[in-house]
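Input/output pair, single chain:
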Amino acid sequence: MNRGNPRTTETPEPRKPPAHADASFAGVLLILATAPTSLVLTLLPWESAPASYLVVAASAVVNATLIGLLVRALGRRGATAARA
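Output:
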């Protein structure tokens, strides 16, 4: 007579928690860091992971270009006002 475990099926393993508790928030931080351009580009109908990286990269380039142009424009105006 077998007096071992009376269960005939194995108990399923419990679900493992995600590697990081806030892992799903990582993508949101990238979008917010490159806002407002990335917020506009996320409205386009792209749903793949490479497309989201492309949106963040393109947004970073656009934002950096706009900030550079703004600094140059304000720098010239500030230097002209200081000489007068």
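The radius of gyration is 27 Å. The first helix runs from residue 26 to 33.
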